[in-house]
Amino acid sequence: MTKKNRQLSLNAFLHDTGHHEASWRHADSSVERAHDIEFYIEQAQAAEAAKLDAIFFADSPGLWSATPYRPTAHLEPITRLAAIGARTQRIGLIATASTTFYEPYNLARLFSSVDIASGGRAGWNIVTTQSDSVARNFNLKQIPSPEERYARAQEFLDVVTKLWDSWEDDAVLADRASGLFFDPEKVHAINHVGTYYQVEGALAAPRSPQGRPVYVQAGSSNEGRAFAARNAEAIFTAHQTIGDARAFYDDIKSRAVKLGRNPDHVKVLPGISPFLGDTEAEAKELQDHINSLTVPAYGLAQLEGLGGVSLGHLDLDEEVPLELFAGSGDVLDNNRSRLMVVANIVERDRPTLRQLLHRLAGGRGHNVVAGTPLQVADIITEWFENGAADGFNVMPPLYPQLLDAFTATVVPILQDRGLFRTEYSGTTLRDHYGLPRPDSLYAGVADEREAELV
Amino acid sequence: MTKKNRQLSLNAFLHDTGHHEASWRHADSSVERAHDIEFYIEQAQAAEAAKLDAIFFADSPGLWSATPYRPTAHLEPITRLAAIGARTQRIGLIATASTTFYEPYNLARLFSSVDIASGGRAGWNIVTTQSDSVARNFNLKQIPSPEERYARAQEFLDVVTKLWDSWEDDAVLADRASGLFFDPEKVHAINHVGTYYQVEGALAAPRSPQGRPVYVQAGSSNEGRAFAARNAEAIFTAHQTIGDARAFYDDIKSRAVKLGRNPDHVKVLPGISPFLGDTEAEAKELQDHINSLTVPAYGLAQLEGLGGVSLGHLDLDEEVPLELFAGSGDVLDNNRSRLMVVANIVERDRPTLRQLLHRLAGGRGHNVVAGTPLQVADIITEWFENGAADGFNVMPPLYPQLLDAFTATVVPILQDRGLFRTEYSGTTLRDHYGLPRPDSLYAGVADEREAELV
Known about the structure:
The structure is a homodimer. Chain A is α/β, with parallel strands linked by helices. Helix content of chain A is 38%, strand content 14%. In chain A, the strands form 3 sheets. In chain A, strands 1-2-3-4-9-10-11-13 form an 8-stranded parallel β-barrel, surrounded by 8 helices. In chain A, strands 5-6 form a two-stranded antiparallel sheet. In chain A, strands 7-8 form a two-stranded antiparallel ribbon. Chain A starts with 8 loop residues before the first strand and ends in a 21-residue tail after the last helix.
């Protein structure tokens, strides 16, 4: 594929009233609609009208935060996808779900059903969850170690992959004359017996339009990168600078190549959270206004939880001491990888505590930018054309206003540059991302014991 | 409430191409659309146009049957409800889910989200699942005993009830000025510590429009009846005769009264599967035709699985020996209660094996009737007015044709008799069923340790 033909992928990451933690306090926010499915359907329809690749929902099976200072309750995302799928035709539908807290048979069914119902538009953002408070919703006192979570995640993924493949593509006969609804030779018990799971199968559903939903992953820890390089087809990641993003991009692509994968089938999609204005000053003014609405107690609690540090003794308007986040450079888990982003900001920019809270308020470590449509399009183009991104997970600080501004002003510039589609060329999320449709593991395998994951 | 004002409840039990196991082989069946969500959306819209109370989906997290002779794969029902909810406005949305194979926190979220997204139309048909083959999809070799399943079900229900109540109705403030999204005094950790579950909470969602989805139950075993009398607000049940139905109705209502419940808040809804024709002969002709399409190997496998008996040595056209199902009168579990229906048919009607298979092919033990709209309306009226039913779970043998016929011809007769609504008077499923909206267990409770289930 030449650079000229290479196309950006753009997702709309839908998140309550916006990605800025104080967006809900804006006078024009949609906070009264934070739990209204129509609010999300409208945004998905707007993203589809702009030909975006997908919408995306984060998730955690617990409150986002124990503090009362922002929308912390959230509708379950897979049922949201199902509702949105019934009111859209083309846009991809990605939701996050945890391998630590679901049964693989249940989760395989949920995503299979969304993929079937939507005509092949489902994607699964695979996470292992890292919160003790979530663990306490599921019979545990604390979250398992990253090593155990990722070992379980890999086996979980192997199980659901087998389940999604358990009906071969041509297994359904629906032959009125013979009375055979399916071909028994083409529906396979998976007979999985592993460390964490014993699952007989087959899945209670025929193979879905995409064969399997798109495998998405969002962890940047060592375990997360290894898992992503082996399994993921799209990776959501957080970087503040093009340098950091390029290093991550190179690392993931080379890991994938070493595992024998085609690096073009591993899309790297950093987050970008754009404040837009007709002028740069107008964009920054909006950013400053929303920053001014933050509740410091919320940001402090988030930062203390992330870093395992105490911040209560610091003055909001004094420089953050360099030593506070020192030693965070060793990426052990996702908390630490996000913490490294914080340490880098502190070291590079020497912000006051208030300034640091504002920096994180916008995108929780993702790249927050404020500028004109042209400036934002230039950043996207620069990252895309210089080995830092295959596309972006777009995280508007305020919904729907800043998604609407993005699709109305930034997308056309990217289209004019030939970097982004003006019409969908396919019908599935795999089509949009340029990913192949996988064959069933069981296709052409006479003895199902021979069908093993490689 | 006087008899005159008492209103029927009518659900459309959606099930693939129809409830008759051979419906898919009919020349005009919709078998090609068996996994097309639009097929189910259209039916739900038709049921809503006829002002029915709800649609209903059965479920089992496994194949319906290992035999290839009928549609055995099925879309996951909660995501189906979500999709249908996004395309309907008033009709109730009931899906089946198993307490044995879900985590309570996950299931609480799924139904809460459907209830919120649909404006208060969700119902949960609570089942414990009784199949060993399903157990083998979930790390087990065989299904737990009925006693253990129902003990787990009760604790599961207690947990999800607490979760659904964990946000008081007025917990969301969304107060831009103060920066408080919720009132911390009104969001409660549930801190459940029981035999099977330890769940901290709160739920990751505000309280839903109905407070809790409607609690539906469909078991008729001893354990099932006790569970239903204690917990259920609507009960789906299978009876062949008005006598059996009245005995069940009386038993359930008196059990509920003994537990201090209002018997009007426990709706008893038998299944009815109507073949309709302009004349009785025409209806029976359609029934005979679809019966003729059955594959005996399918029905035999179902019956053998149900009864734990071998039937292969019998001639299809000889009378079923009375002793074959003798001793099935002791209702131990749901399989046995369904088996008792079979034993009663054999004893009462002395059918050949083929005739017995045809009897069961239509509704798996539910009441299959063939007649004119007036005849079917008369049966419904007779059962409703004589203490056998508060309404019906309508199970058309062939979709969409026999649902359309029911709504076009039977419903108007019931409306003319003043037994069924001509317009919805409320917006929620609780409104349709005439059920109260429960207060949160935590409402007005200062110390959450005081909030205990009674």
